[in-house]
Every structure is written in C-alpha cells, then in structure tokens.
Write a structure and sequence with these properties.
alpha+beta, nine-stranded antiparallel β-sheet, 27% strand
Length: 355
C-alpha cells in the first residue's frame, strides 16, 4: 500500500508541475437572505468519479500518507463525497451537519515538519474532517490534531451550515486559517488567499478576463458580492451559483461543477461527460454504520434528482474507478494490478465501532 500511494504522489507532483492550468480549480461561498451555498469547479485531465455515501460510527485509519503513526479516528458524521482516487480519498464533499470541504492546488503549500502528531494524506484530511467536524471552528481545531504528510501542495475552502467560511492554507510549514473578519471574500482559487484578495481589490472586473487563478478569483469575488444585493429563491440561488461556475470554467478541463445547498442538504452537479444537472438529497440517506454504503457514477447520463438511483457499493466498482482514472494518464499505467487491488479493498477493513 505504501508503494502504491507513493506512486500516486509521484504522478500528481509530476503532472501538476507540467500541467498547472489543468488543476486550476475554483471555489466560492454564497450567503444571503438565509441561503447558504458552496460552489466548486474541479479542473483536471480525468473526469471519472464515484459519489459515495460514507457512514458514521466507522473506525478508520490513515494509509495514504504512507508513513508511521497513521491517524486513527471514528467517524461522527455521515457524508456524501466525490471520489476519483478511490473510496476514503475524496476531493470534497458535504457531511450530514452541513459542512462542506473542497480542495485546490496551491504551489506554495508547505506542510508542517514531522512531529508527534499522527499523519494523514491530503485527500484523507478531507474525509477525516467531514467525519469529525460539524463547524468551521471544529475543522480548525481538528487540524491541529493531525499532520498532513504529503508532497502534493493543496489548500482548502471550508463552509458550515451557518454560513461560516474559512480557508485552510499551509505556508512556511504552518497552518494559516482565514476566518471571520480576516476573510473579506469567500472564495479561493490557486494562489494564496492574501495575494488573491489584494489582486481582486486592485483589479477591475473588466480586466480580469483570463483563466488565470487571480482573474478567476477576481470574477468569483465580484459575483459573490453581487449575490448579496437582492433576495433570491432557492432555485434562483442554485442557478446563480452555476452561472458563476460557468464564468470561471476552463473548457476541456472543468470536469465537475458542483453546487452544495448547505441549508437543505442538497447537492447539484454536472460533469463534462454528462452536462445535464443532477440533484442529490443528501439529507435522506441512512448514514448508520450497519447500512450499506451507497454509490453513484458521477458521469451517469441521468438528469434531475438521482438520490434513489444510488446503488450498493462494491469493491469491483471502486477497482474499476481506480483502473479508469489511472489508465487515463500515462504515468499511472505503471502501477501494477496487485497494488490497485489493494487500494480498492482496504476501505473494507474499517469496522463499525462496537456499542
């Protein structure tokens, strides 16, 4: 397993250094008149993915960091996550408390040096937080309990059901969280938050026309401010979020566009391979540990509400996702079959916590 995840790390670092634009994701939060929404464009070269329903009360341990002293925890909240590198390694998602976390590439990220804290991988950090946190304040507090051990430079945008938002960055080996008055703009792209805000303040929206990180941030910043100028219905708010995602999308690279309605526990999404918008009513899932894990192909040709279309999870589906995602890139084709098998099966070793 350690060798397997080192292969992933090597690929991602290699690919991101050579293909900075293709991993240029955009996130933002909208709050006004009782509406609380989170938008995310996932920009990457591969679009395969499974949407998974994760259970509460599951005993878990981190493996993708590939080192000693892996973090161990019990999931307190169920969640719905978008996964591309297999179960338990999401790129983002929503938990049953209304908390959303999404990742973005950040070339300047530097994680803390080795210390006594248990370790997690960059994607496992997301699942750990969705499993363990109800609010932004809890995410920040829980961030001090574990240490990310990875060469993949990322940062995160976090929002809770009450509309509190935070950026989680790792600069010069230290965690930096912008929250409250230190977060004047609820958005994040691929530069540091401070640099992005300075650029947005100094740049007119007419000039911010490119697909660069700073220009996308400036446009998202303006659009989030405009959202607060007039009341919107539930559907109007969702439509507005998708309008922003279209504005900051990168043709050919924006694989997934996701809108989380945190107030109602609904997830709207469309993909490059399947443009019709689909909706998941995450509040209706059974998150008890004894119930079956559910899954849905992100690129399904369905449209409208797809909650009832989720099927029982299978290892073969997880294995197929890994196969398709890795075969979509030349470098990951080198990962041998037995290591792909191990990655597909390890989540099934996590038991329900005895009552």
């Amino acid at each position: 397993m350690k060798r397997f995840y080192l292969s992933i790390v090597s690929f991602l670092v290699f690919a991101l250094l050579l293909s900075h634009v293709s991993f240029a994701c955009t996130t933002f939060c909208l709050r006004h008149n009782g509406e609380v929404l989170f938008g995310k464009n996932y920009d990457w070269m591969v679009g395969d993915g499974l949407i998974l329903v994760n259970k509460r009360g599951v005993e878990k341990s981190a493996v993708s960091a590939g080192g000693p002293n892996p973090a161990r925890w019990v999931s307190q909240y169920g969640s719905v996550t978008f996964n591309q590198y297999g179960r338990e390694n999401p790129s983002g998602g929503l938990n049953e408390a209304g908390l959303v976390i999404e990742l973005m590439w950040h070339a300047d990220a530097q994680y803390p040096k080795a210390d006594a804290r248990p370790i997690v991988g960059t994607l496992e950090w997301i699942q750990f937080q969705l499993d363990s946190s109800c609010t932004v304040a809890e995410v920040i507090n829980n961030s001090e309990k574990v240490r990310i051990a990875s060469e993949i430079p990322l940062h995160y945008l976090v929002s809770d059901k009450a509309g509190n938002t935070a950026t989680i960055e790792f600069l010069n080996g230290k965690l930096l969280a912008h929250v409250g008055k230190n977060l004047p703009i609820s958005a994040l792209t691929n530069d540091s938050y401070d640099r992005s805000v300075k650029y947005a303040v100094a740049t007119s929206i007419e000039r911010a026309r490119t697909s660069s990180s700073l220009d996308r941030f400036a446009r998202a910043a303006q659009k989030t401010a405009d959202f607060e100028r007039q009341p919107k219905t539930e559907q109007e708010a969702v439509n507005y979020a998708f309008e922003i995602l279209s504005n900051v999308a990168q043709p050919g690279y924006t694989q997934w566009s996701i809108v989380y309605d945190q107030k109602r526990g609904k997830i709207y999404f469309r993909t490059l391979q399947s443009p019709p918008i689909k909706m998941i009513d995450a509040a209706t899932f059974d998150y008890s540990c004894a119930s079956a894990v559910k899954m849905f192909d992100a690129n399904s040709k369905e449209s409208g509400e797809v909650t009832v279309k989720f099927a029982d999870y299978t290892r073969s589906a997880n294995r197929s996702l890994i196969e398709r995602s890795f075969e979509g890139t030349d470098f990951l084709k080198r990962v041998p079959a037995h290591e792909r098998d191990a990655a597909a099966s390890y989540p099934e070793t996590f038991p329900c916590k005895a009552r």
